[in-house]
Amino acid sequence: EAISRLNPSVRIESHTSKVGDAELGPFDSKFWSKKVHVVLNALDNVDARLYMDGQCVANRKALVDAGTLGSKGNVQVVVPHLSESYASSADPPDQSIPVCTLKNFPYAISHTIQWGRDLFDGLFVRRPKQANHYAD
User: Fold this and answer.
1) Which residue in 36, 62, 69, 100 is the catalytic one?
2) Mean pLDDT per 10-residue section of the chain, whose length is 136 residues
3) Is residue 56 among the annotated active site residues?
4) Sign of CA dihedral 23, 29, 34, 38
């Protein structure tokens, strides 16, 4: 809505779909043949970012990739065949699982295990500590 007030000719289409080779979802050939000029990413894992980066480069679409992990943030602009792509640089391996992955798109068994640990910790560690704190 705010962007439309700044420039009424801008059209934005948002998606909250799983992204990757096995999950075309809305990102099929029809999507790439539309009048898409720029793709804005806010993805929660490296595989999805690499997939969208590859698709943008192959389809000659600009990409703005943004992400956070805890208090850290990153933005990278990719102009196909003019700038470095996301795949050209290597991210350090993730040591933790982003909360948004656990809540929205858990896709690996390690996410299920972490979700269970977080639930257990909340129910049987943090809440009893809080109760003991108030009881003292």
Assistant:
1) 100
2) 87 84 77 87 86 92 86 87 85 66 75 83 86 82
3) no
4) positive
